[in-house]
Amino acid sequence: MNPHGFPSRMTIGKMIELLGGKAGVSCGEFHFGSAFGEPSGHAHKVEAISETLVKHGFSYGGKDFIYSGITGCPLQAYIFMGPIYYQKLKHMVVDKMHARGNGPRTLMTRQPTEGRARNGGLRVGEMERDCLIAYGASNLIYERLMLSSDPFEVKVCRVCGLLGYFDYKLKTGICSTCKNGDNISSLKLPYACKLLFQELHSMNIVPRLRLTES
Prior knowledge:
It is a single chain. This protein has helices at residues 5-9, 12-27, 46-55, 93-96, 126-135, 138-147, 191-202, and strands spanning 63-64, 79-80, 151-157, 165-167, 172-174, 184-190. It is α+β, with helices and mostly antiparallel strands and 214 residues long. It folds into 3 domains: 4-80, no CATH class; 90-149, DCoH-like; 152-213, DCoH-like (Alpha-Beta Complex), CATH 3.90.1800.10. The chain has a two-stranded antiparallel sheet with strand order 1-2. A two-stranded antiparallel sheet has the order 3-6. The protein has a two-stranded antiparallel ribbon with strand order 4-5. Keywords: DNA-directed RNA polymerase, Metal-binding, Nucleotidyltransferase, Transcription, Transferase, Zinc.
């Protein structure tokens, strides 16, 4: 284990277990590996474990002088090592690997579903987006966050800046506020953005889009 992980994770019991394990296999006894001792009071203290190690020819602190298996030369430092009990982690790659091209989408936001069980997409979150911004990969951001997610075409009135709708009878866009379709432009934006505008409208907050010629 990386020694830098011990202060934050506070897994001091593992270090005691290493010492106790080495002393236990040396003398054929069980040792308690708890950092806090046992309620019965029978827990072995680190000093007692270290004395057992010295009695059987090991270092007091549990460090060993070992040779490199590659060069055959002794290593320049003493290595803190010993036997320890561990179990196999059940997380397997075959249970986690997942990819998708097209697939199901959620009804409300029209974005890809989440999770391997639902054949969901891989989320590009805020931190991933920040990395792409730092690299200046604007086309990739546009593709991941819009084209591959929830692209949607809306009709926007250039006069009032509000969202309109497409009239299939007249075959043109109509602004429901201005009551005409003379100043309607088509705009592509994420469906979740359109949904946000509509939810703000329901709270009597009116966001307006100011369009400029590109």
